[in-house]
Each structure stands twice: as structure tokens, then as C-alpha cells.
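WARN no homologs supplied; continuing
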Amino acid sequence: MRVGIYQNHPVFGHVDLNIEKATEALSGIVADLVVLPELFNTGYQFVSRQEAEKLSEDIPEGKTCRAMISIARSQGMFLVFGLAEQYGGQLYNSAALIGPDGLVGTYRKTHLFAEEKGVFDPGDTGFDVFDIGPARIGIMICFDWWFPESARVLALMGADIICHPANLVLPQCQEAMRTRALENGVFTITANRIGREARGGKYPLIFTGKSQIVDTQGKVITKLGKEEIGVALTDIDPTLARNKHITDQNDRFEDRRTEFYGPLMDL
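OK structure emitted
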């Protein structure tokens, strides 16, 4: 299975331009699955909820999903990408999974970061796993990485690959995602952005780049640089994620002592 990451530097609010750049980068590549960043089409630092609402879209009827469906259909691949979603009077920081036949699923960000709490509604989808044929994939968005329960739940639900659209400003995530891959025995694909945003007098945000694909042993097998724009691809065997052995005597999931994990649910 060939998987990839797209790393961009979106121009805030210029949705058509950002879609066009993504389309150009993805055109002609051969891949089964590519992950794009969180809010790749709009930029990140909204000055108000009203601004985000104006830039939000319906999934899958909005212009961004329509463009991504066209790419997925013409090139026979699946895409995971982040966007501001308008649904039922609510506003979500969401990710869509698109395939050759259209929308496969939607995930709404569970753990909102910093000023996102004043812009978006908390995600209500919970975590889910989608079967795309060669692999079962789960989705989490950016700050979800801070909570190990996010990746663990997806792995327990059978995810072979965790797709992770992100707009990272904290410096620890890339290393932490290696741990998430190792402790769960899954592949992780973190698609980040680059650049700087300082809008409406807000504190400047500097995005860390360094998108990466990590294997089931926590090894980075493909990455992009801190300031790089473009696509990186690699081949993986997703069935390796179905072997949860650590040693001949140890299994990541069977060795859990869940009878002692009660406080995880009670606190």
C-alpha cells in the first residue's frame, strides 16, 4: 500500500487558492491514501467564530469536498483532510475521509486546543475506524495527540493506520506520535503545515512542519522538513499492524490489566 503526506503553507482565507495548490501537488501521484493538514483550505488562526463560520463548508457538498472527490475519483485514491464544517447550526473542526466513490466518513475533533474553544463546538462523532480495503484507518486531529486515549481507542477498534491532520505549534508532537505508533503497534501519518500566522492582534503562531509517517515500531520512515512544501510517499504493509506482539511472551493488548484501569473511566 502506498501512503503519503501533503504539507502546505495556506494563505489564510483564500480557499480557492489553497485548494488549487493541493490539487496541483496531488495531481499525477500514485498513492492509495494521502493525508492533508488540519484546516488545509482556510488557514488556522480565526479571529472570531463568525469568521470561521463564513469559511466553513458542508461535508460533502462544499467546494473543498467536491474538489477532493474529483481528485480521489480520477486517481483512484483515498484522501483525509481537515476543514471547518458547518452542520446543524454547529461549527466543527473536522476531517473528511474521501474515496473514489465519494464521502466515506467524517471525524470531528474531540480535544479542542487553546483558542479553538471560542471558535468551534466540541466534536460529537467520537472515534471510528473505516475499512478502505487494503487497510482499516482511524482519524484524529492535531491536539488529540496529547491524549493517549485517542490513539489507543482507535487501535483497539482495529485501526491499522491512524491518520492525523494537524496544524502543530507545540514542539513535542512528532516524537509523541512515534510513541503512539509503538505502544499501539499501528502506522501513524501526521500531516502538518508550515508558516506563521498573527491575525487580529493575536499572539503569533509558528507551525512546526516536519510531517511524518511512522511504522509500527515507532520508526519514522518518511518525513518532510520544517519549511518544506509538497508531498512525500512511501510503501507500507498495513497487515503488520495486526500483529500486536512485543516479544514471544508479550502482546500489546492481551497483556493489559484492565481490572486496574478503573480510574481512567472514573476520573
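Helices lie at 15-26, 49-55, 63-75, 148-156, 173-184, 262-266.
OK
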